[in-house]
Amino acid sequence: MKFDITNNFSDQKSLNIAAISASDTFQTQADSSLSWGNHSSLASEEKSEPIATASSYNSNNGYGLVNAGAAVSKAKGESPYTDAPKQGGNNWGADLINAPTAWQNGYTGKGIIVAVLDTGVDYNHNDLNDNIWTNNKEIAGNGIDDDSNGYIDDFQGWNFDSNSNNVFDDNGHGTHVSGTIAGENNGDGVTGIAYNSKIMAVKVLDESGSGSYANIANGIRYAVDNGANVINLSLGGNSSNNTLKTAIEYAGTKGVIVVMAAGNDGGSIPSYPARYAYDSGIAVGAVNQNNQLTDFSNRSGSQEIKYVTAPGENIYSTLPDNKYGNYTGTSMAAPHVAGVVALLLSANPNLSESQVRDIITNTAENSANSPQPSQPSNPTPSMPSLFPPLDSFFPINSIDIGSQFPFDIGSLFPLGSQTQLPPIVMSVGDNSLEVKFGNASTATSTTAYFTYDSKNNNKWELRFYDSTGSKSTIDRDGDIEGEDLFKKYYS
């Protein structure tokens, strides 16, 4: 399926970006609000069977539940580790993703810096204060940019919302996320997935959980340039933005892995920036304690992206002023995966960004238990049920369905003077149709592909390959009449 990642807003336009927690009240009333709720606007689509592929990816939960123990052993090039005993209690999330197995083998995130781009961090919290990154190139409070990085006195990070060095959490969301990643293993409160890693506080959201794409992009670049190995983005919006996309790609080129919450709309695809995980970073959906995908979590979508799942419902973690609490949302799932990435890098710091992405997905649940491909019960677009699958291809069971079309489909193909269609067989997939034209007696064929993307302004494209392999393309901009006919018949 073709994927539209055009920039719908000016790079300089300020947008309200919501921290992604289904239990939060991070809503804004501005017209440009991009806050993510916990409702489902696509309930009928959630009932569809997932599309699975040979790569163990499906359109519902991507590659499935992340597995810390399996990922770390693969990162080390070692045989799979024996599962460690479960921790129990409030550490059920760590148990579900098999983090104790990595700990048992000596990998706890030591030496890894995880930047939390959020509402700030309570760096004085008893369960976090020993795991807070500080800029050792900067002298605190002297009013001088000692390291010449463009930020004065950024000893504990930077606040891009107020353009200051005050990164203290005035909301609670960022502190909760941080505890899931690096809560100390001190027998109190919560134990983080990578409990010996360091948290770099980068404040990009205000006290209500709103921010701008520009500030988030600047926060990413700050984290990369100041030594972060992993970046957690428990935030997002519903529109693409080239400035943010470029910043995430910049992180990837520097070997920094960006972990992004999928969003809480219950939709069939992730929101931005998680949707960029086809190219950079990792998208994360939320499951409950029984490893069931939550109703609110955005699904992975039919376009294969680096999407895994992690615990995101009733997650216990740190809150400002030495408090603790339970939050729900894909915001809570993402830091579990950010922690797993920190474990991987503590086991093998030489891994590239692409290697980390591959290890995370290749060791996730669906890869270990390869599902068989299936078709959705209500695919989009809906296709006539009379067409046979492609495995009934020439020369057996060929069916001439040319007369079934409500318009002259032949006029859409560059077949010269030929007006009568040869026998046709079809294969129907999610948002796509493959048509093979041919001669049943000689078992020769030509192929056309029709793809339709209702999520991107009803976008469609028709590609035709003749017997020599030459390709011709008709898209919605090239044939408006054809576009309308296809949309009428197949939508």
Compile the SSE list and pairings:
Blueprint: E1 18-19, H1 43-46, H2 68-76, H3 92-96, H4 99-104, E2 113-118, E3 157-159, H5 173-182, E4 198-203, H6 213-225, E5 230-233, E6 235-236, H7 242-253, E7 257-261, E8 282-287, E9 307-311, E10 315-319, E11 323-327, H8 330-347, H9 353-362, H10 365-368, E12 424-429, E13 432-439, E14 444-453, E15 459-465, E16 471-475, H11 480-490
Parallel strand pairs: 2-4, 2-5, 3-4, 5-7, 7-8, 8-9
Antiparallel strand pairs: 1-6, 10-11, 12-13, 13-14, 14-15, 15-16
Helix pairs in contact: 2-8, 2-9, 5-8, 6-7
Write up this protein.
The structure is a single chain. This protein has 491 residues and is α/β, with parallel strands linked by helices. It contains eleven helices and 16 strands. The chain has helices at 43-46, 68-76, 92-96, 99-104, 173-182, 213-225, 242-253, 330-347, 353-362, 365-368, 480-490; strands at residues 18-19, 113-118, 157-159, 198-203, 230-233, 235-236, 257-261, 282-287, 307-311, 315-319, 323-327, 424-429, 432-439, 444-453, 459-465, 471-475. The strands form four sheets. A seven-stranded parallel sheet has the order 3-4-2-5-7-8-9, with helices on both faces. It has a five-stranded antiparallel sheet with strand order 12-13-14-15-16, with no helix packed on it. The model is unreliable at 1-17, 21-54, 370-447, 449-461 and 463-491 (pLDDT under 50).
